Amino acid sequence: MKVQFAPMDVPLHRRLQTATVLQWVYSFLALAPTCILLFFYLLFTRFWLISVLYSIWWFFDYDTPAHGGRRVSFLCDLKVWEYMRDYFPIKLVKTADLNPRHNYVIGFHPHGVLVAGAFANFCTYATGFRELFPGLTTYMLMLPLWFRAPFFRDYIMCAGLIPSDKQSAIYPLRQKRGGNAVVIAVGGAPEALDAHPGTYKVMLASKKGFIKMAMEHGAHLVPVYSFGENEVFDQVENSRGTWLRWTQEHLQRIMGVSLPLFHARGIFQYSFGLMPYRKPINTVVGRPIKVEKNPKPTSEELESLHQLYMDELSNLFEEHKGNYGVDKDAHLVFV
């Protein structure tokens, strides 16, 4: 394979974009185990007191992730996230107003490999969410596993991330003042295994838990489709029924996280590596679906709202796909 190296005269702003995305990829893939190793390593050095004091802090702060976390607006507004936004670039597209007097459950589709669009749009201020939807605060759900990693848990809470278990997810929705939006990558880790360029598979057909949560708390539903999310990485062919897919799915059930074998470009060359391609991601926020509070919805009511949500997501995709280079014959596939 011939390696295509990056030119020497790459402008500084593009180098800064690459550096920012590099730290984000590292944070997503390796920062949690690094923090765990650091925590135990410090115990056997003259800096052991750091880990001991952190353990005490962790004991008293243990329930914070389940109570809305601890977003640090200053960190969400750092210039580095603008460099990440411009690397792809990532754009947030508004189609309707969201009244800040209500709470919302935002369904993000598709998951993609590393959920780049969801992070940039809902965990940072770089794409203008605060200006487009004033009065709303987003809380993005993440596997509870990551909140058990010392130091790392504090880092991800700074960006407004909270655990995806039920009690943590409903905490913002129970706030009667409104203005809270829980963001769920509905397909979750399993959907990452279908994140191939040019595919539009959405794991939604049997995903009804977030619909029930919205009904129980009277939170309006908002479908979101992120065009280009599947285009920024290539993935080793893993069709359903192959030995690789079987292995990935079994590991996912055991560990709770999926292991897509993805690749794209490198830092100083464009031929291979784990850096995403510079391809645009356009995240389109759909119209809200009004949901009346129903503490004990029947299966028929749940099914009806779930079907309405799928229809709205499909309509959102069809309405906007022509704007973002999707073939007119392409349609969403619900699995």
UniProtKB/TrEMBL annotation:
GO terms for biological process: diacylglycerol biosynthetic process; response to yeast; triglyceride biosynthetic process. The keyword RNA-binding does not apply. This is Acyltransferase. It is found in: Endoplasmic reticulum membrane. InterPro entries: DAGAT. It is an enzyme of class 2 (transferase). Its main location: endoplasmic reticulum. GO terms for cellular component: endoplasmic reticulum membrane. Belongs to the diacylglycerol acyltransferase family. Its EC number is 2.3.1.-. The keyword Flavoprotein does not apply. The lineage of its organism: Eukaryota, Metazoa, Chordata, Craniata, Vertebrata. The chain crosses the membrane at residues 21-44. It is a multi-pass membrane protein. Keywords: Acyltransferase, Endoplasmic reticulum, Lipid biosynthesis, Lipid metabolism, Membrane, Transferase, Transmembrane, Transmembrane helix. GO terms for molecular function: 2-acylglycerol O-acyltransferase activity; diacylglycerol O-acyltransferase activity. It comes from the Eukaryota.
